[in-house]
Amino acid sequence: MWTIALALAALAATGAEPAEPPLSPAQKAVVAKVISGLKSPEERSMASGWSNAKKVAEFICRPAALPALKKQVPDADKVFLGTDNPATLTLVSKRSLTGVGQVRSGAAWRDFTFTCALMPSSGKVAGFTAVLKAPA
Q1: In whole numbers, what is the pLDDT of the chain averaged over residues?
Q2: Alpha-carbon distances of 94 from 24, 35, 51, 75, 105, rounded to whole Å
Q3: Which is higher by pLDDT, 80 or 9?
Q4: What's the pTM value of the predicted model, to 2 decimals?
Q5: DSSP string over the chain
Q6: Cα–Cα distance for residue pair 104/1, rounded to 1 Å
Q7: According to the model, what pLDDT value does residue 28 have?
Q8: Burial of 106 per CB tally in 10 Å (0-12, 13-18, 19+)
């Protein structure tokens, strides 16, 4: 028990974060393909430096998010997963990404929480569920 507590205290003191789960070979391939298709070297370099959670959110889950959200918000036209704060996205495992997001409907943005179920063998989304917060 003390060993775990000391390890956590040391981790907190150094400001280090626990390592993220690794991506599956298929997930790595999907991410690499999308990054290689980005227009500029600067964009490719920036995206390559993102956390695994951010890569999965942008390149694997976000394309599935808008069609799923349109079932709840029919006129939705834009979606963001996560924010500038890395803590808003959590790669739970090769099978799940959770976090917060925003969806635009007309001129209004609505916040939501989400779970993106992943298929590590194919690098695709198994399902995307969102819980919308009440409009302000």
Answers
A1: 88
A2: 7, 19, 13, 31, 31
A3: 80
A4: 0.84
A5: -HHHHHHHHHHHHHT--PPPPPPPHHHHHHHHHHHHTSSSHHHHHHHHTS-HHHHHIIIIIHHHHHHHHHTTSTTEEEEEES-SSGGGEEEEETTEEEEEEEEEETTEEEEEEEEEEEETTTTEEEEEEEEEPPP-
A6: 47
A7: 97
A8: exposed
Spatial CB neighbours of 20, under 8 Å, sequence gap ≥ 6 = 51, 52, 53, 91
Q: Find where tokens 């507590």 sit.
A: 5
pLDDT per residue over 60-114, tens digit each?
999 999 999 999 999 999 999 999 899 999 999 999 999 999 999 999 999 999 9
Q: Taking 50 as the threshold, does the pLDDT of residue 56 lie above it?
A: yes
Pairwise CA distance, residues 100 & 51, whole Å: 16
CA–CA separation, 98 vs 134, rounded Å?
19
**Dist. CA 95–CA 116, nearest whole Å:** 8
State the residue for tokens 């995307």.
128
